[in-house]
Amino acid sequence: MGMLDDLLGSGKRQQEYSDFVRRYDQGHPSEGYSDQEVVDRYRDVAHAVPRDEYAQAAQEALARLSPEERASFARMLQQRAAAKGMPLPDNVTSSPRDLGDALTNIHEIPGRLRDLFGTGASEGTATEPGGAAGGLGSMLSSPLAKAALAGIAAMVVKRAMNR
Hints:
Layout lengths: L2 H7 L1 H16 L8 H11 L5 H13 L3 H18 L11 H13 L3 H6 L25 H19 L2
């Protein structure tokens, strides 16, 4: 797995990721960590796995949301994609598989997730006040989006640690 193994390999770093996964598992998927931590963990691991593993992690993370939360997240995805002129299948349902596939497709194009949910450079950077890692800050103002990203990162890390 390369990069992901490197991230999880050292004792301190591995403990930080284990703690993140533990907090994800304990409560609602959108609670227990800062927006910046979610962005950092997601950024560290999301591109370190192949498409099929990302898609599985997304499906597992979205399955943790209630049916009502998934329906709301699906509407949010469709609305933001339409507002940004991004292609998103019309038939995206609130099933974890459909939503996971939609997120996987968005994720595959570098910057697309940030473009869909953030406002880009005008939002600041991770080191500037009010900014969170390349425009994802406004995305995380939605607890459902925060839950999705935290869940994807946690599921990727869980799988890597179980190997």
